Amino acid sequence: MQFRKPMALHALALGMTLALTGACVSTPAHAASNDNNVEWNGLFHDQGPLYDNHPEPTASQSVTLTLRTFKGDITSANIKYYDEADSSFHWVAMHWSSNDATGRFDYWQGTIPASASEKYYRFQINDGSSTAWYNAAGISSSEPSSGDFFIVPGFTTPNWMKNGVVYQIFPDRFYNGDTSNDVTNGQYTYGGCATEQHAWGSSVTSNVGGCNSSVFFGGDLQGVIDKLGYIKNTLGADIIYLNPIFKSPTNHKYDTEDYTTVDPAFGTNSLLQTLIGDVHSTSNGPKGYVILDGVFNHTGDTHKWFDKYNWWSSNGAYESQSSTWYNYYTFQQWPNTYSGFFGIASMPKLNYGASGSAVRNAIYGSGSSVMQTYLKAPYSIDGWRLDAAQYLDANGNNGSDSVNHQIMREMRTAVMSVNPNAEILGEFWGDASSWLDTGDQWDGAMNYNGFTNPVSEWICGVDESGNSNSLTPSGLDSWLHGTRADLPTDVQQTMTNELGTHDTSRFATRCGGDIWKTYLGLIFQMTYVGTPTIYYGDEYGMQGGNDPDDRRTFDWSQGTTNNSAVALTQKLIAIRKQYSALRTGSFMTLLTDDSNHIYAFGRFDASHRIAVVLNNDSSSHTVTIPAYQLSMTDGSTVTDALNGGTYTVQNGNLTVTVNGHYGAILEQ
């Protein structure tokens, strides 16, 4: 029974009237009564700390849920939940608990008993003969069959990921800290391409057609060490995600030659330990964390397990059918016909076979496996990003559900056995819920589907690849709502929200080079649900088209707060760090104004109520938002954390003027 699957409903017909359309917001009379009419605009619940007392419960913790309604509006409310332990629905009657600070709302509570089984719940809300249903997908007049809220006992995602900001680095293009290890012209040839050493800041395109992967600029791990002050102190980011660093003949390193060795052009294994130690240290800024890129769907054809070019003294699978590693790959006709990643011959797919296979043990299953080795001392990394995660499989297949999910469950068990606080981040471009909603596989995924693409379409008018497509604020809100509903709350909070990555065109380029659109994107990124993830250079508006142009070298003349976008990034990260409401608080849509291109939402917890107003028009607009929805009381003041301006709540509303392609962060 698939009732629990939200199926990306995007709230299209679910009457989420908290999203008020139009520039004018009127204050309701709030003369709610038992009149056989449930007022949908008063309903709210999510799994923020004010509405769920245990968003990550243990098997022994009951979960008390809070539902908000207009004061005096309903006659009864119930929680209806499905329990996987007995494959049955259960009912919990709710009781009135209290009023909010404004006196406009009632809070109703009910408790789901503790157990180890996964559960999914929705609310039934009654006013006499009228009934409304509420779940993660939205509000409806008839009982929904999907889109329920999740309770996954025993599943936690790392708090450091929920509360952090990621900085993603493509090592060859970030900073050259050691010129002695630079790859020089013609140093070696791979795939018919001789290496090319390009000057920092010059073109990323090779001098020979089809050889872009052979272009090197000299960026390395010493460069990252040298620039930790910029990352940790100037910007304030505290999580570093490194694109692949292991030995490989290409600049991108997604064709691994040796998982045990840092590529010599980047440094040494000892230097990697130094870098990780420096990131973890608090002597040079806030304690940080390191996520490495795990390319485990395939190796390169130069890996000793395969050894297509006889680079190793041992016999690889390509050289001999008697090779120790022959069954690590899938040959249709040995040696030249085999399964490659998307058919790419230089990236032969690993054959994970059955549980307990040699490949599974080599990658994650044994104490000496690749994943466990780097999670342990002396490296002690904090997590793995899984490249092409959905495609890991056996016998040359590309991610059959049963085998792929089995691999991921085993991988999680192995990772948690070494570091229960480690992050497992999957690369996925669509709805990743089948890896995320049961708590036994990944912690989060790269949020292309729930952030990168919709935000690009709204702000830039193109998707993440630069194809023309635009969204209205109401369409944006619908998209974002649906993708949040697909996932448990603690997963939502660890989805990585990127404006761009090494696999997309640059955000600034998609937005036509308008730095104000970069400002708007940064404000959105730092206030939305999830872990903000900056692809190096996006913080100053780096330009670049699709791969390889999105991997230009960092312009260090811009890596300073003299650059207005860098200064804004610094301020935004500091604001995010200051207010837990922006990290783990509730999310509520406040306004979608399609005519004026305004999107406003609230983030709140017990300590602070914050209204974020985003203006995607080229002109400034005076915007009125329903502050009462955040329980901001009349006469109370808010401060714009961006410019220090103060505003007073009047008749339940806040009115603020927001510059074009900019925003306001109104906190109290």
CATH-derived architecture of the largest domain: Alpha-Beta Barrel
How big a fraction of the residues is strand?
Answer: 15-25%
Mind describing the biggest β-sheet? 8 strands, parallel
**In total, how many domains does the architecture comprise?**
4
What is the total tally of β strands?
36
The mean pLDDT is: 95
Helix content: 10-25%
Radius of gyration: 26 Å
GO biological process, one term: carbohydrate metabolic process
Pfam family, one: Alpha-amylase_N
Signal peptide: 1-31
InterPro entries: Cyclo-malto-dextrinase_C, GH, GH13_cat_dom, Glyco_hydro_13_lg-like_dom, Glyco_hydro_b, Ig-like_fold, Ig_E-set
Structure keywords:
668 residues, alpha/beta, Immunoglobulin-like, TIM Barrel, eight-stranded parallel beta sheet, 15 helices
Give a short synopsis of this structure:
The chain is an alpha/beta fold. 20% of the residues lie in helices and 24% in strands.
Provide a descriptive summary of the structure in words.
The chain is globular. Helix 9 runs antiparallel to helix 13 and helix 13 (515-527) packs parallel to helix 14 (564-578). The protein has 668 residues and is α/β, with parallel strands linked by helices. The strands form 10 sheets. The protein has an 8-stranded parallel beta sheet with strand order 26-25-24-19-16-11-28-27. It contains 15 helices and 36 strands. It folds into 4 domains: 32-151, Immunoglobulins (Immunoglobulin-like), CATH 2.60.40; 165-175 and 232-303 and 346-578, Alpha-Beta Barrel (TIM Barrel); 304-345, no CATH class; 587-667, Immunoglobulin-like, CATH 2.60.40.1180.
